[in-house]
């Protein structure tokens, strides 16, 4: 048996997986985000540990024989979170999360070096700018920092006593020289740190340690249970859906949106605000475009219209019939790819008195689809087109939306059969590989596909024209946006 633990933003989730990779049990615990000031986003690291304890208590209570058979545990988690520990490994302050925008000035200060060394623009959501912010605004706390960990790696410390991280998650700190898969002394120096503040680096498939004896006894694990390096949430999701071989990719339609493509070598495109990171498996990298408001945009308009998101989309019919006359820019929280703009905000254009609820919903779905094309276009410049993308996330339950996205990006979208192939499942696969010294390509296979949705050839030109209209709106609205 194998266990995957995912430390998300809204919950801690654990999945218990059999040797034939069937999920036999799951558990989750809710997490709360604190927003003490506009643009800030924080969590108490101890809340992750309480959530981890809760899910393992639940799993061990109902699956005692299976827990005893667990040989490997994999970890995944929200990326970029700055977890600052003192000399006694106690958190010095709440963790500054991935969607916290306070360190925009600090990110600007680091961008030139980061582009040159890591291949990535320094965005305020990444970890290194957050430490520079702490050094400037909370110097008394910065002076006490002895270790900086990412969220999942804080859980690793609690589980095993080891300060370790994997390449994929560490690449999102901006302290990793991504090509070399090693810490960059220069990037650390620019934020007042050095290697002594960093965890040891491992591949996501490597063993980083074993469970503490007291915890193994508490939950009924074997004392020989190993813990794998694991991965950042998107890299772990890539393992979960079998996006490991070069040229394979997935599209995630969650609260935020992600286009993820695996590669066999390091390639960077900072001019397109592309994330060029290490993958969670050895000798592999990936590129990723991020749209900050994907399904979140649909949830937003549903709240305003007072309707259920699924029912609002169902009201549009079974498949798109062509672009509407309204354009929507889904920049409700700023945008990462391709603009790297925390200040820009969303907008509707082309509104008319004749427009109704359905027109607004259609515009939102189209705006998000156009944002995915923005992401894919800057990914494909260095990587070449993937043959198809596999759909994951809550938004992938809408066939209408998937057909729209497939037509806008002009790529088939494969829809998995029912099942959970997310980050926790991918983490369990990494635990499997570490425990068994297995081949990642053999273990991380794609799930069974229920349906492949092809682009609508009759509508491709019409949506291409609408996309050109969409692309022209960002420069026009940028100057009118405020934080």
CATH architecture of the largest domain: 2-Layer Sandwich
Q: What spatial form do the alpha-carbon principal axes imply?
A: globular
Spatial separation of the terminal alpha carbons:
48 Å
Radius of gyration: 22 Å
CATH class of the largest domain: Alpha Beta
CATH superfamily of the largest domain: ATPase, nucleotide binding domain
Secondary structure category? alpha/beta
What composes the largest sheet?
Answer: 7 strands, mixed
The helix tally amounts to 18
| Helix percentage | 25-40%
Supply the number of structural domains: 2
Given as residue ranges, the uncertain stretches (5+ residues, pLDDT < 50) are none
> How many E strands?
24
Structure description:
By secondary structure, this protein is α/β, with parallel strands linked by helices. The chain folds into two domains: 2-235, ATPase, nucleotide binding domain (Nucleotidyltransferase, domain 5, 2-Layer Sandwich), CATH 3.30.420.40; 242-420 and 448-478, Nucleotidyltransferase, domain 5 (2-Layer Sandwich). Helices cover 37% and strands 20% of the residues. The protein has 18 helices and 24 strands. The strands form seven sheets. Strands 1, 2, 3, 5, 13, 14 and 15 form a seven-stranded mixed β-sheet that branches. A hairpin with a 4-residue loop joins strand 10 and strand 11. Helix 13 crosses helix 14. The chain starts with a strand and ends in a 5-residue tail after the last helix.
Kindly summarize this structure in a few lines.
With 483 residues, the chain is of the alpha/beta class. 37% of the residues lie in helices and 20% in strands.
